[in-house]
User: Which sequence fits this backbone?
């Protein structure tokens, strides 16, 4: 069976663009802090979700709904409400990280497929077996810190489907555990659904064309005139330490694993995932079409790596990486 | 968000004779553009719900290769667009700057905003939250240049197709594809 192509949607328009460009499945979230892309103006109302599910199903595509932030004490009704809205809309699966939300979904919607979000950071056979046994999780979205070899080894020891990120923004922290955004702004992807919330981000253009990005007043980077920029996250800040200026945690680059599709399929990965619900129609149409072409080429025995350079202009910082898949720092 | 307190740096050009001419005759384009915003609000009020508080924010859209800029308040049926000089220093929530063809392509969703930002072709100053809300609203709205110009059916579809094709050519020509 061909690898499933899972693409992002931040709006019904983007969902349609993804499906029309060749996505097998589209993932999206509701318009609140129950998903990890809780940006202003983004996401779906319950009515839009139901309409979009019907539209996608009529075209043979699936809709997966992310309810993948961690429910807060005293406010768990909102997470239960999002699971209910997804179930009522007839989505094909919900993508969940929180143990309590998983337990609720399992109990309230026993027929609803559960995928484990990357936010759960489940990267060991024992952790994955726990989620499968206790909640009936059918698919695990793999942490973005595993090499292809580690994924292949993992696949030999687990019995659920896996989904691996192949394009878009990278998060090299233990996902669901990163506190950098919280430290600077009081809001995080884990609890609020936003990393570097836009109300805390400023860009200052300086005379001569340089630009400084700041998060809650902390300078993250100063870009020279014309120098490609990255997302305003602390993990991609450029800092001076002992006289040397460098990206301490992570360069501002995008993941592009199109050249690794053959190896990922050989490792047994069920689905490949594109990051970027916050992007838009133009982005998802191009990325979905390119990966559709790559997967079809793979199915015909071809080498998808010939398409590696097709998406570079969409990359953060204008640069791409195979990320941890080709881990070289150990 | 929604306030109009940001002024930004000074020292921008007033735009010269072309700007003087466009400012003298700004009433007609202001009427068309304001009518287009209000027309979309009347036909599709749900578009403006995504903006939240940002609907009351003033955005200055400043094409770097056009003599004048535009001040947009996307407040649904009371929204308005004004033609302003590039050195207009009235407070606004945010200022979005870039080549005209790229700004138009962001409006109709045919260009990717993050890629435009990464490449530094589009610059954002002021309230990032309001700007993100505006971007996501435009992405969801599926507006075309025909909507911006207030073109109604049956001309809307052919104008949309023609404008999209023209924008694609202009983007390639300007190297902002």
Assistant:
């Amino acid at each position: 069976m061909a690898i499933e192509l899972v693409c992002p949607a931040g709006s019904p328009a983007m969902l349609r663009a993804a499906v029309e460009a060749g996505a097998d499945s589209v993932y999206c979230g509701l318009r609140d802090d129950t998903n990890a892309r809780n940006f202003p103006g983004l996401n779906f109302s319950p009515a839009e979700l139901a309409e979009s599910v019907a539209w996608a199903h009529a075209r043979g595509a699936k809709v997966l709904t992310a309810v993948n932030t961690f429910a807060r004490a005293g406010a768990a009704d909102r997470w239960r409400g999002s699971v209910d809205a997804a179930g009522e809309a007839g989505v094909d699966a919900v993508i969940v990280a929180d143990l309590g939300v998983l337990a609720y979904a399992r109990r309230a919607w026993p027929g609803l497929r559960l995928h484990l979000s990357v936010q759960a950071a489940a990267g060991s056979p024992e952790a994955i077996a726990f989620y499968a046994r206790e909640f009936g999780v059918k698919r695990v979205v793999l942490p973005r810190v595993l090499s292809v070899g580690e994924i292949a080894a993992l696949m030999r020891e687990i019995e659920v489907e896996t989904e691996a990120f192949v394009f878009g923004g990278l998060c090299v922290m233990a996902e669901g555990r990163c506190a950098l955004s919280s430290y600077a702004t009081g809001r995080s992807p884990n609890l609020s659904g936003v990393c570097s919330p836009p109300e805390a981000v400023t860009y200052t253009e300086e005379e001569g064309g340089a630009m400084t990005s700041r998060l809650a007043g902390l300078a993250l980077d100063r870009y020279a005139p014309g120098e490609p920029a990255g997302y305003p996250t602390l993990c991609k800040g450029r800092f001076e330490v002992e006289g040397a200026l460098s990206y301490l945690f992570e360069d501002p680059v995008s993941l592009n694993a199109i050249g690794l599709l053959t190896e990922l399929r050989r490792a047994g990965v069920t689905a490949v995932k594109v990051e970027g619900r916050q992007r838009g129609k133009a982005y998802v149409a191009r990325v979905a079409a390119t990966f559709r072409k790559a997967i079809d080429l793979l199915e015909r025995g071809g080498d998808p790596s010939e398409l590696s350079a097709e998406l570079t202009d969409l990359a953060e910082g204008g640069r791409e990486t195979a990320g941890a898949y080709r881990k070289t720092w150990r | 968000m929604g306030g109009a307190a940001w002024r930004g740096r000074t020292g921008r050009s007033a735009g010269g004779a072309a700007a003087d001419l466009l400012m003298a005759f700004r009433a007609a384009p202001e009427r068309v553009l304001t009518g287009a915003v209000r027309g979309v609000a009347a036909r599709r009020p749900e578009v403006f719900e995504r903006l939240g508080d940002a609907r009351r924010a003033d955005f200055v859209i400043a094409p770097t290769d056009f003599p004048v800029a535009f001040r947009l308040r996307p407040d649904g049926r009371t929204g308005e667009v004004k033609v302003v000089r590039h050195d207009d220093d009235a407070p606004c929530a945010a200022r979005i700057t870039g080549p005209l063809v790229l700004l138009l392509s962001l409006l109709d969703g045919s260009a990717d905003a993050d890629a435009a930002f990464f490449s530094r072709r589009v610059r954002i100053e002021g309230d990032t939250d309001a700007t993100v809300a505006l971007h996501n609203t435009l992405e969801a709205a599926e507006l075309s240049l025909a909507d911006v110009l207030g073109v109604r059916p049956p001309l809307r579809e052919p104008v949309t197709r023609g404008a999209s094709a023209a924008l694609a050519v202009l983007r390639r020509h300007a190297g902002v594809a």
